[in-house]
């Protein structure tokens, strides 16, 4: 039982988190936990505070009140220390470096963080990137850029992968490929935190769901439970 | 005279020599700006400091000692500047940075007057480079060829480091998008510190190289500041290609303008600057971020 208890210590724990931009406070005491080896989806309407939550976790926005804990310890403040602690982040805008080739974008993290994820292994997951290694980062299509951003994140050999709106702007066939890739990562036991507008995509992938409304978590439960609960969907997601 | 090929070659070499000097100055400034959006107007003062250190050291220990020590000394000044001032000013806006670093120019001006006096210093060329060399039929001062060669070597070295190494890729990533670079585990602030010190050292090297060519005077930093800023605006902020292209454009327009259209020379470069800002507001080769 002790082992089981330790195993279930949250990989990420947000406690009464307050954060925002300038004068505008977006998060008003948001609390949520991500369990290890599982996928947690943050759902909610535009402006509810989902992306703000991710940016605050990554140290891109300061924590104004409350706490972020990662694997039981307080989260470092600086983004590079947070990354080195084991969190990889794929932002909504993908943020591929335009001055770097695909290979350089990947080696940027591959050389710093060594582990199970190697260049060969990510290229097996995303074979398209293998054909594009010497292309400039911005010569890629939107789907390829999303794959590059994910590959770059995986090469950090993270303990937690954070994805912000991974399906945004992608064609349905690419979304299906992305779903398969993420399912493969989930089967490999990678903990994930995902923000996603596509309700079907998010609930098909996630184990757990937290619904964010007006800067707080207003509902938590399993992905199956929210699929069945049209009341919550209607009230907080406008589905 | 303009039909004489020797004239064109001579002026081309003169233009190259001016370009390489400006390149050594502008590369540090432009990458510092690209990486951290930090405006350091005191960059010219670091160049003057390099010239003074080189002139003083070379009077005692010879030119080559000055050429090595001046960049090191200016890099040390850079470390002190960074720790004492610039790190604290990273989050203040560009206006505060411009005002403070502009103020630093005058602090440096008076400091050099206090230490070295208000007269121009002469700095001797090394005996090895004192002569002239025949280049395709014209005699050209060996020292100026050395300046051109040094600029090209520094350019090649920086092109290799920035284009082919891991730290170069990290710097380019930081220039493109510093927040994302940090999210990938890169300590952008430390990278900035390294680049800043290297930029200072190159400004010091430019000063040391310029010392035997120009008279070393307290206001030499102020005089070079505007040309350096024009170079990085023409070239585009943050990139090596921009710094070399901007330096070449400035060097050639200035040199050939002065001999072909002396009446126009002083406004020619400003006219070109305005034209480039209209046609390509971000400069010729801006960093892509």
What is the makeup of the main sheet of chain B? 2 strands, antiparallel
Number of helices of chain A: 11
Query: If helices are DSSP runs of H or I spanning 4 or more residues, what is the number of helices of chain B?
Result: 11
**Number of strand segments of chain A:** 10
Average residue pLDDT of chain A: 93
Terminal Cα separation of chain A, in Å? Answer: 40 Å
SSE pattern of chain B, N- to C-terminal:
HHHHEEHHHHHHH
Main sheet strand line-up of chain A? 6-7-8-3-9-10
Number of strands of chain B: 2
Helix content of chain B: over 70%
What would the average pLDDT of chain B be, to the nearest integer?
A: 92
Helix content of chain A: 25-40%
Weakly predicted, low-confidence segments of chain B: none
Strand coverage percent of chain B? under 5%
Into which percentage range does the β-strand content of chain A fall? 25-35%
Strand order of the largest sheet of chain B: 1-2
Q: What's the overall geometry of chain A?
A: globular
Low-confidence sequence ranges of chain A: 1-6
Write the layout of secondary structure elements.
The complex is a heterodimer of chains A (239) and B (289).
Chain A: H1 2-7, E1 12-21, E2 24-34, E3 39-43, H2 50-57, E4 65-70, E5 73-74, H3 79-85, E6 87-90, H4 102-110, H5 119-125, H6 127-131, H7 142-154, E7 160-164, H8 172-187, E8 191-195, H9 199-205, E9 208-213, E10 216-222, H10 223-228, H11 230-237
Parallel strand pairs in A: 3-8, 3-9, 6-7, 7-8
Antiparallel strand pairs in A: 1-2, 1-4, 4-5, 9-10
Helix pairs in contact in A: 4-7
Chain B: H1 5-36, H2 43-61, H3 63-86, H4 94-116, E1 132-135, E2 138-141, H5 142-164, H6 166-176, H7 178-183, H8 188-210, H9 220-235, H10 240-260, H11 265-279
Antiparallel strand pairs in B: 1-2
Helix pairs in contact in B: 1-5, 1-6, 1-8, 1-9, 1-10, 2-3, 2-4, 2-8, 2-9, 3-8, 5-6, 9-10, 10-11
């Amino acid at each position: 039982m002790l082992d089981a208890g330790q195993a279930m210590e949250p990989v990420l724990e947000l406690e009464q988190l307050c954060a925002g931009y300038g004068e505008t406070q977006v998060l008003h005491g948001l609390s949520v936990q991500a369990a290890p080896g599982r996928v947690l989806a943050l759902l909610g309407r535009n402006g509810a505070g989902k992306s703000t939550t991710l940016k605050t976790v990554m140290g891109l926005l300061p924590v104004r009140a409350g706490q972020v804990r990662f694997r039981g310890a307080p989260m470092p403040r600086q983004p590079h220390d947070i990354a080195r602690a084991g969190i990889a982040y794929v932002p909504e805008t993908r943020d591929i470096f335009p001055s770097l080739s695909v290979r350089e974008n990947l080696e940027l993290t591959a050389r710093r963080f060594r582990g199970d994820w190697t260049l060969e292994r990510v290229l097996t997951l995303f074979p398209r990137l293998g054909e594009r290694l010497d292309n400039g980062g911005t010569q890629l299509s939107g789907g390829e850029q999303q794959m590059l951003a994910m590959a770059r994140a995986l090469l950090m050999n993270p303990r937690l992968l954070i994805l912000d709106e991974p399906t945004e702007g992608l064609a349905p066939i690419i979304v299906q490929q992305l779903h398969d890739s993420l399912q493969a990562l989930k089967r490999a036991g990678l903990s994930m935190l995902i923000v996603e507008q596509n309700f079907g995509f998010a609930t098909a992938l996630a184990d757990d769901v937290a619904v964010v409304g007006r800067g707080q978590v207003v509902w938590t439960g399993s992905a199956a439970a929210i699929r069945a609960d049209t009341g919550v969907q209607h009230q907080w997601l406008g589905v | 005279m303009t039909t004489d090929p020797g004239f064109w070659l001579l002026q081309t070499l003169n233009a190259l020599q001016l370009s390489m000097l400006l390149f050594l100055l502008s590369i540090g400034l432009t990458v510092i700006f690209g990486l951290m959006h930090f405006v350091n107007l005191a960059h010219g003062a670091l160049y003057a400091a390099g010239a003074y250190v080189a002139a003083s050291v070379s009077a005692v220990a010879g030119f080559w000692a000055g050429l090595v020590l001046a960049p090191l000394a200016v890099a040390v000044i850079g470390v002190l500047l960074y720790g004492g001032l610039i790190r604290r000013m990273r989050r203040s806006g560009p206006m505060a940075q411009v005002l403070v670093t502009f103020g630093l120019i005058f602090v440096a001006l008076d400091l050099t007057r206090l230490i070295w006096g208000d007269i121009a210093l002469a700095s001797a060329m090394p005996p090895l480079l004192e002569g002239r060399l025949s280049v395709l039929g014209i005699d050209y001062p060996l020292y100026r060829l050395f300046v051109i060669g040094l600029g090209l070597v520094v350019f090649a070295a920086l092109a290799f480091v920035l284009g082919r190494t891991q730290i170069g890729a990290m710097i380019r990533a930081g220039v493109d998008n510093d927040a994302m670079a940090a999210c990938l585990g890169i300590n952008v602030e430390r990278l900035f510190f390294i680049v800043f010190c290297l930029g200072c050292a190159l400004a010091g090297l430019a000063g040391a190289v310029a010392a035997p060519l120009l008279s070393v005077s307290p206001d030499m930093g102020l005089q070079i500041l505007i040309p350096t800023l024009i170079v990085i605006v023409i070239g585009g902020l943050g990139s090596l290609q921009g710094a070399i292209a901007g330096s070449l454009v400035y060097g050639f327009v200035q040199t050939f303008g002065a001999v072909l259209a002396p009446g126009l020379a002083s406004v020619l470069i400003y006219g070109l600057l305005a034209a480039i800002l209209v046609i390509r507001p971000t400069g010729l080769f801006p960093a892509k971020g």
